[in-house]
């Protein structure tokens, strides 16, 4: 398992569009998932210990952000042939088991992860109402272990600021996680 950190936020970068299949059998585009005040795009998967450590917090924050007018979507781009835990069928099971309150989409070709520049799971992209990137940081201080219950909700606070002002915080701490499992890695 390779552990990576995300690059610095490219403020103002436009959100790339997509058309992906969700675990509910519906197809979703950028227009389908954006909220009136912004959008959080999360690259996650099922098997990564970094994602598992914050899964309940991702769900909590997604619910809280929806109330702030922020759309939330999760995308799994991992190579399921090498990581069967990240298969579309397994995604359906995990989304049902944990009651994901957001669309969980499968990026089978990995084109969406490449378009966004995603590097790890979890990787968070926070966009304003104009779909301009304003946040590329971590959820909170969690790593492979869940941070203490009173840890600052960095992602949530940043997205609330974006909903209110259209701008993300100048200071952002990169997210850390397992590398995205690219097809033909090393080729």
Automatic annotation (TrEMBL):
Name of the molecule in the record: Thioredoxin family protein
Highest taxon of the lineage: Bacteria
N-terminal signal peptide: none
InterPro entries: AhpC/TSA (IPR000866), PRX-like1 (IPR047262), Thioredoxin-like_sf (IPR036249), Thioredoxin_domain (IPR013766)
Pfam families found in the cross-reference section: AhpC-TSA
The Thioredoxin domain, residue ranges: 9-161
């Amino acid at each position: 398992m390779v552990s990576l950190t995300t690059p610095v936020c490219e403020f103002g970068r436009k959100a790339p569009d997509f058309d992906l299949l969700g675990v509910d059998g519906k197809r979703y585009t950028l227009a389908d998932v954006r909220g009136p005040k912004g959008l959080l795009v999360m690259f996650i998967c099922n098997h990564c210990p970094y994602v598992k450590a914050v899964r309940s917090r991702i769900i909590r924050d997604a619910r809280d952000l929806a109330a702030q007018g922020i759309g939330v979507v999760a995308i799994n781009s991992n190579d399921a042939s090498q990581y069967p835990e990240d298969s579309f069928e397994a995604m359906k099971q995990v989304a049902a088991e944990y009651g994901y309150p957001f669309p969980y989409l499968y990026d089978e070709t990995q084109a969406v992860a490449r378009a966004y520049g995603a590097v790890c799971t979890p990787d968070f992209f926070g966009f304003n109402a104009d779909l301009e990137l304003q946040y590329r940081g971590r959820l909170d201080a969690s790593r492979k272990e869940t941070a203490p219950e009173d840890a600052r909700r960095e992602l949530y606070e940043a997205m609330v600021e974006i909903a209110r002002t259209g701008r993300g915080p100048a200071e952002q701490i990169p997210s850390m996680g397992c590398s995205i499992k690219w097809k033909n890695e090393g080729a």
